[in-house]
Amino acid sequence: MVYTQHLLLGLIAEDRDPQGFLGSGITIDKARGAVWSIWDEANSDSNLSKQQKESGLRSGYEAGLRSCRPVL
After folding, report:
1. In Å, what is the CA distance from 53 to each residue of 36, 58, 59, 65?
2. Is the pTM of this model over 0.90?
C-alpha cells in the first residue's frame, strides 16, 4: 500500500530543482489530475460496482482527492 509519505518522498527524490518539489511548479490541481488519471487506468469501468458507477465515485479515495488541502 502506498501512503502519502511515499508520494512526498518520491516527489522529493525525483525532482532535481534546487528548491525541491516546491520549486518545480507542482500544484494541487496538477497533482490531483495525475492521481485521477492513474486511478482511472487502474480501475477501469469493468471493475466498478453498479453503485459506484451511478454515484460517480470510484472509491473513497476519490472523494478524499476532492478535499485535499496542502499542509505547510
Report:
1. 15, 7, 10, 17
2. no
